[in-house]
Amino acid sequence: MENHCITVENLQVNYHQQVALESVSVELPAGKITGIIGPNGSGKTTFLKAVLGIVTPATGIVRFFGEELDKVRQQVAYVPQRESVDWDFPISVYDVVSMGRLNPKRWWQRVAAEDLRIIQDALAQVSLTELQHRQIGQLSGGQQQRVFLARALAQQASLIVMDEPFVGVDVASQDSILKVLQTLRDEGKSIVIVHHDLSTVANYFDYVVLLNNKLVAAGDTKVMLKPETLAKAYGHSLLFQSTSES
Question: Would you state the pLDDT for residue 236?
Fold first, then answer.
């Protein structure tokens, strides 16, 4: 069995002739919660979007469980940043979550009873059953984030990729989301999360990729949180400030 959920070789992204991400090669372990961290503007979201093909890299090869994305697309679920979603769109919580059961290769098929059960299970896992008929803009920030996590759960993907899921989310919702992710990990799923808050990294992640427009380091969380390692990306002064505030 492939023991890496994502393998990246020589990934480079250029914006307007400027290098946004420079020749990143890294392997992300399967069955772990992996954090992509680094200072503001370090290319974290760019890395994620390039890996998923949302932006086109200048160079690079990406494999998911040893395969090209097109071959395993149904096994990869993406949870975008909340700010990228149109929350005024007239769609309910249930409708968003049900999208996780749509197979683009079999779009004409009706939703089966088993699909309905999976959708309800996904809603229950993130405590949104009672809110399933609400328009998504009527929810709190934490509830909105849980909607898209529920969609990923309904998809039953082997890999869930999330971009800043804890931004603008209250502590109770953060804890709720983290517990769901930890349960998924314990079931053998792989989770990859772009994250910016250094103070929570130790509690959230098993493995960390440290970026600063290039790969600084990657490894087990305890190793990556050593001051000398973090200083390579954040600088000594910012690192001192961050650890003092945490």
Answer: 60
**The CATH number of the domain covering residues in 4-221:** 3.40.50.300
- Say whether pLDDT at 242 is over 70: no
Q: What is the pLDDT of residue 240?
A: 47
Q: Are strands 190-194 and 159-163 parallel, antiparallel or unpaired?
A: parallel
Q: How confident is the model at residue 110 (pLDDT cuts 50, 70, 90)?
A: low
Contacts of 224 (CB under 8 A, 6+ apart): 201, 208, 210, 217, 218, 230
| CB 190 within 8 Å of CB 237 | no
Q: Phi and psi of 109, rounded to 5°?
A: -75, 140
The per-residue pLDDT for range 140-157, each reduced to its tens digit, is: 888 999 999 999 999 999
Give the Cα-Cα-Cα angle 228, 232, 234 (nearest 5 degrees): 105
Kindly state the tokens that stand for 229. 């390692």
CA 209 from chain center: how many Å? 13
Q: Is the pLDDT of residue 94 over 80?
A: yes
159/78 Cα distance (integer angstroms)? 9
Residue spans of the domains in the chain: they are 4-221
| Residue 27 CA neighbour count, 13 Å, CB half | 8
pLDDT tens digits, residue range 158-185? 999 999 999 888 888 899 999 999 999 9
Could you count the other beta carbons within 10 Å of the beta carbon of residue 171? 9
